Amino acid sequence: MDLSLTFQTNDGPVHALKDVNLDVQKGDFVSFIGPSGCGKTTFLRVMADLEQQTAGTITVNGVSPAEARAKRAYGYVFQAAGLYPWRTIGGNIRLPLEIMGYDRADQDARVKRVLELVELGGFEKKFPWQLSGGMQQRASIARALAFDADILLMDEPFGALDEIVRDHLNEQLLHLWGSTNKTICFVTHSIPEAVYLSTKIVVMSPRPGRITDVIDSTLPRERPLEIRDTPEFIEIAHRVRDGLRAGHSDD
Amino acid sequence: MRNVVPVLTVVVAIFALWYVAAIALNAPWAEDKAKRAGVTLTTSQLIADTWSQKKPKLPAPHQVAAEIWKTTGDMALKGRAFSKRSLIYHSWITFSATMLGFILGTGLGIALAIGIVYNRTMDMSVMPWVIASQTIPILAIAPMIIVVLNAIGISGLLPKAIISMYLSFFPVVVGMVKGLRSPGAMELDQMRTWNASGTQSFWRLRLPSSMPYLFTSLKIGMAASLVGAIVGELPTGAVAGLGARLLAGSYYGQTIQIWSALLTAAALAALLVGLIGIVQRYTLRRMGMVR
Hints:
The complex is a heterodimer. Chain A is α/β, with parallel strands linked by helices. Chain A has helices at about 40-45, 65-70, 90-100, 105-115, 135-145, 165-180, 190-195, 230-250, and strands spanning about 1-10, 15-25, 30-35, 55-60, 75, 150-155, 185-190, 200-205, 210-215. Chain B has two domains: about 5-60; about 85-285, MetI-like fold (Orthogonal Bundle). Chain B has twelve helices and no strands.
């Protein structure tokens, strides 16, 4: 994937994003971190063609976001699981597949495969309310994975979950990323989460939304949870914190 | 069945009040009669009289019950269930107009709601008219509808059904507009990320989301539809139907007949709304929306 963009969004008179320049390579795990209002979600939404830039260019997989959306090049995971209460977990994962016109046998196979991937095998027939918040969010990730998009856009997917569940899901997500070789763009406002997950951390600051620092992680791809206590991890976290502070000082 | 006791308590209270009211309202006439006959009534005689008059101001429950039985079960047993004097026959006439009007009204209501949700012009223009339509007293417009349709050769069931439709489409429009708009921004964005077409979003997201709203509207619509059918029967010259029974009863001062028609109409409404409730429970359970 080659994604380069320079654009200024005008959300009314508010500059949601100003002169943002970024390259994301295929297979990267990129985190966007910053205080609320820094435009990290807006940035993700532009990539997903849910919002259009007012100036500049952006390409996703070498084409415009609109084309990428039409080709179903990405899966989007929202902050809330957004599962339909009237569909079972299997039915919810099947939903995008139905919309995209996969045949029935293929749908069944894919639902089964992605449920195994997020460790929800056997929950296909359950309704969303029968699952915990963390399990629901895993089901929504499974739904985004079901149709073989190369890119996964995640907008604070674990923001509403408690820390213990979040740790577990982060570990699983890294595992998933390692085994599927997808490109993941991940919005968060937790520093440990960003450092733990990413190969590249994009620090952003608000008014107008812009990138203050891009940090390439030196951590290995294989990351147990304990890596968060190593000096290397703390060093990167420190750089992120500095970047966030710098963004605020010239405010 | 937790609510049997409270419901029964209320029913008993209503009957008690009803009997007391019957005494109070019918006593003057009973005393009048006694005075003309030159006798004085004991209290128990007076009460017995107020509960058994032929044309009481307020008939006692057992009189109404007897009248209902006489014109339904009793006639059915004699094989005359559909004779013109049977309440079953009149209920059937009203029921058929109610159902046809209800189906037409639900269809019109859903169609208008879809138009309002998907078309900005309709959104801006239709809703005020829908609300205005309900501010016109139905009693004023019902005879017009009957007369106008009669003039172009349409009579019988359809004019009454149209009056029913006129009343029942309103709750359906209001409920369905709300229901179809109930999916949040995130759910709509989600559909967009999958590049879903408008029809796909409608069938897979908007319509299922609106189901709880639809059933609530249908219950109100059904009750309104029955009122519409009864009102529609008044200006047709009291031929048939529960409305006609009401009108005929009031012409001849047959209060017992009026009350029996009223109670039958109430029972019919309860039955129809209850039926929708059963369909609602079944549908929502199938959809996993009942926990």
